[in-house]
Automatic annotation (TrEMBL):
Subcellular location: Mitochondrion inner membrane
Broad class of where this protein is predominantly found: mitochondrion
Similarity comment: family membership: Belongs to the COX20 family.
Alphabetical list of InterPro entries matching this protein: Cox20
Provenance organism: Strigamia maritima (European centipede)
Swiss-Prot/TrEMBL keywords: Membrane, Mitochondrion, Mitochondrion inner membrane, Transmembrane, Transmembrane helix
Protein name: Cytochrome c oxidase assembly protein COX20, mitochondrial
């Protein structure tokens, strides 16, 4: 009986809902999750604060949605820029390390600041 339970446990695959977004799964798009989480929470916060300050429902909704859009897009572009910059730096470091390994043990000096 316990042997059957162990076999069932090995075959278990957790359910993972996926939402397609332009042909890609949302969980595979870099920066998507954090951008929307920050945008939703920021827009909600701005809308609530504006409503508490002025008691104008329609205007508070407008401010909340506008801040959601601005925060989401702002964080999205910042995150993607940072990711691209880091990827570029890692590629440079990888090339330098490969060049160093290639020249190791020879009389050639590596190029770079001395």
């Amino acid at each position: 009986m316990s042997q059957d339970a162990d076999e069932d446990a090995d075959d278990y695959v957790p359910f993972s809902p996926t939402i397609p977004f332009y042909g890609k799964k949302v969980r595979d798009v870099p920066c998507f999750r954090n951008s929307f989480l920050y945008g939703i929470s920021g827009g909600f916060g701005v809308g609530i604060l504006y409503f508490l300050a002025t008691s104008k429902t329609r205007r508070a909704t407008d401010f909340g949605f506008a801040s959601f859009t601005a925060i989401t897009l702002g964080y999205w572009f910042h995150c993607r820029y940072t990711m691209s910059r880091d990827r570029f730096h890692f590629q440079q470091i990888k090339a330098d390390v490969e060049e160093y390994m290639h020249r190791e043990g020879t009389s050639k000096k590596p190029k770079g600041p001395s």
